[in-house]
Amino acid sequence: MKLMTLFPRATPRIGAMAVTMLMMTTPTLAQSAAQATQESDWKVAAGLGVLRTPIFPGARKSEAFAAPYFSASYRDRFFVRGPAVGVNLLRFGEHDRFRLGVVARYTLEAEWDESDDRALRRLGRIDGGLDAGVFGSYRGESWFAELAATRGAVLRKEHGEKSTRGSGTAIQFGFGYTTRLATHLRWTTQASTQWSDATRARTYFGISDAQSLATGLRPHQPKAGITSYGITTTLDYAFARHWTLIGLVKFERLAGDAKSSPIVTANGKANQLSTGLFLGYRF
């Protein structure tokens, strides 16, 4: 999904990542904007932009990508956010502000290959997989929060070895605030963190004995714990009835055993910065 010849490693996985980042970090924008234009069972927003982000978690190198996004919901029950599909099973509280539901998501953005960067050389590759789980959320007029627990599997192939299954369980928590700075300008900021079990941490940040021999990096077997935390801020400028311009900045810092992985300490870095600019249309 990187942008044509300007960004040579063009694959749809990066587009999916952009979708997920945008829609998960601005959970109220697509719905409220669509509601402003029409009252119907369907609420849909779609667009295209450019996102600059690290090429894998812990990478020193960043690249720019063409980044489509898509969001849709039906009667506030069924929703799609990029590669994620979910259902609000329970809605309760004043104005149905509390939600409990299930979600499934294809983790295309989790893919990396040893040819992507020297930090990954002779480590093999990871192919995308499916995560599924449960979530609970709160959506107020200004404040929002979400807690999700998912479990999934990806295909991991170490250099010269047979493919194995990995991934494990992750718990993500985020809370944020959104407000209008002007009639057509909305600002949203969200803080978030992720906990990973040992299986998931080792899938993305571990160094096996075989990988250590192949790369010269020390073996590393991460334990369960917090693997990252960060903050995302967006500005949404509705310059016409259906059109909006969205700017995004996300800072994330790896933590715990993820931060101390040789993949990060040898040729990567713990601080991760992503920026994006998107043009969207509300149907």
Biggest sheet architecture:
12 strands, antiparallel, barrel
Please provide the ordered H/E string of secondary-structure elements.
HHEEEEEEEEEEEHHEEHHE
Helical coverage, percent range = 10-25%
What average pLDDT do the residues reach?
83
Q: In the CATH classification, which architecture applies?
A: Beta Barrel
Q: Would you report the number of β strands?
A: 14
Discrete helix count: 6
Distance between the termini: 24 Å
Protein name: Outer membrane scaffolding protein for murein synthesis, MipA/OmpV family
Signal peptide: 1-30
Keywords: Cell outer membrane, Membrane, Signal
Organism: Rhodanobacter glycinis
What do you see in this structure?
With 283 residues, this protein is α+β, with helices and mostly antiparallel strands. The chain is built from six helices and 14 strands. The N terminus is likely disordered. The protein is globular. It has a twelve-stranded antiparallel beta barrel with strand order 1-3-4-5-6-8-9-10-11-12-13-14. Helices cover 17% and strands 52% of the residues. The protein has one domain: Porin (Beta Barrel). A hairpin with a 2-residue loop joins strand 10 and strand 11.
